[in-house]
Design a protein that fits this description.
The chain is an alpha/beta fold. It has 19 helices and 16 strands.
């Protein structure tokens, strides 16, 4: 049921309009003035706002402007007994969906509300579709301010133009599949399937059938022919995540497919030609696995024609604010929701063992559990421990940084937290009290 926030300082008219809208099937909340309307709007975002122009404490046009700043996607219908062409033009310029003058009949208002809500629904679907396209095509979360990451993306886009096999390495959660999708989306195969397989998630007894397919009767439970992932990705891209988990006997068969570009379904005596671009990924050190005898060196060299290494998030901290903004949109946080500067500073100081995936989880949790529109530092719950080296190393700008100013800043902050108690401040800074007093005198800090 669509929700409508109805704002009118005329009690009798407000009740009649509320009755008509409710009878038409809408969930209606009312407000008698601008202050009540703002409070209701911020507490629970409506699908539509219907407001009078003259509200006593503020103008409906001012209210329209504020609502459009906070949630531009919510349509607003303006109602007034003082209608004029100039006011209508002003309201429409400020983003009003429609402008209705009093007196109006019930059907006119209801029809206008339904049209506004249809538009609102269409915008939501369009936004969701756009987000899904971004997710599937691999373009989300790839913007960067980090030099090394920018060079990597430049290389990836250049590689996309070829059919060369790519091996993406990096820690878990760094975005290896996103990078693989980005390469596919910018390749000549972008209109063909992108098929992803997590080699670690498939039992060793089923991996051959999963990759190459099987024929009916090949084994117990094979009640019909089934194509494998290679056949499903024909003319497209096959992404093999956690390639380091393949067992040695499967590595041999996989190598043969890469060399001959033919697969043999389980239980079949015939081969099928496949045209597939391979992108593999792993969080393991495959050279180390080769030295241990766990991974074939010939397969490694066949896979790593183009090696790409994704840096961990702790090595690209300058991207965290942009990633946070991206995840706020992804989890559909209202436009006014943001992280405080202190909260962002804490996110940038954390070592992120779970990388981008962990950051996404933290942002989602904060969006759900937030107390206000500005998410405070204390609301951030991190699963890992922040190391001392991570916690106290600020970013160094190109023009340099004064170590003395950093030290003075930490002392002032510790005294602020301790309420001016020097013993407590010294404890927070993990230095003796007399050392703190010496520093205060040295820096001329009269606190």
């Amino acid at each position: 049921m669509n929700s409508i926030l109805l704002i009118d300082d005329d009690q009798s008219l407000r009740r009649v309009t509320e009755y008509n809208l409710t009878k038409a099937g809408f969930a209606v909340k009312t407000a008698a003035n601008g202050g009540q309307a703002i409070e209701s709007f911020q507490h629970s975002l409506p699908d539509l706002v219907v407001t009078d122009v003259e509200l006593g404490d503020m103008s409906g046009l001012d209210l329209l402007k504020r609502f459009k700043q906070e949630a531009p996607e919510v349509p607003v219908i303006i109602i007034t007994a003082y209608g004029s062409i100039e006011m209508a033009v002003q309201a429409m310029h400020q983003g009003a969906f429609n402008f209705i003058t009093k007196p109006f009949d019930r059907d006119t208002l209801i029809l206008s509300c339904r049209k506004a809500l249809e538009m609102h629904s269409l915008r939501i679907r369009t936004r969701s579709l756009s987000q899904e396209i971004n997710r599937l095509t691999g373009v989300e979360g790839m913007e960067t301010a980090n030099t090394a990451m920018a060079e990597l993306l430049h290389t990836a886009l250049k590689v996309a133009e070829s059919d060369a096999t790519v091996l993406i390495t990096g820690e878990s959660g760094t975005g290896k599949e996103v990078l693989a999708r980005l390469i596919h989306q910018h390749s000549s195969r972008k209109k063909e399937p992108f098929v992803a397989v997590n080699c670690a998630a498939i039992p060793a007894t089923l991996i051959e059938s999963e990759l190459f397919g099987h024929v009916k009767g090949a084994f117990t439970g094979a009640v019909q022919n089934r194509q494998g992932r290679f056949q499903a990705a024909h003319h497209g891209t096959l992404f093999l995540d956690e390639i380091g988990e393949l067992q040695p006997e499967m590595q041999v068969k996989f190598l043969r497919v890469l060399q001959e570009k033919q697969v043999e379904p389980v239980g079949s005596d015939r081969t099928e030609t496949v045209d597939v671009r391979i992108i593999a990924a792993t969080n393991r050190d495959l050279r180390l696995e080769i030295s241990k005898g766990h991974f074939r060196d010939d397969l490694f060299y066949r896979l790593s024609v183009i090696p790409l290494h994704l840096p961990p998030l702790r090595d690209r901290r300058e991207d965290i604010p942009a990633l946070v903004a991206h995840f706020l949109k992804k989890h559909e946080a209202p436009p006014q929701v943001s992280f405080s500067q202190a909260a962002l500073a804490r996110l940038r100081s954390y070592h992120w063992p779970g990388n981008i995936r962990e950051l996404q989880n933290v942002v989602e949790r904060c969006v759900i559990l937030r107390k206000n529109d500005t998410i405070a530092e204390k609301e951030i719950l991190l699963s890992g421990r922040t190391s001392a080296s991570d916690r106290f190393i600020p970013d160094i700008p190109p023009e340099g940084l004064s170590l003395e100013e950093v030290e003075k800043g930490l002392i002032v902050k510790a005294l602020s937290i301790s309420g001016g108690n020097r013993s407590e401040a010294a404890r927070l800074l993990k230095i003796p009290r007399h050392v703190l007093i010496y520093r205060l005198e040295k820096f001329g800090l009269d606190v």
